[in-house]
Amino acid sequence: MTPRQKMTDAEIDAAVASDADWAVFEPIHWSKAQGPGYQRRINAVLRSYVKQRKMG
Question: Binning pLDDT at 50, 70 and 90, where does residue 2 land?
Answer without folding.
Answer: low
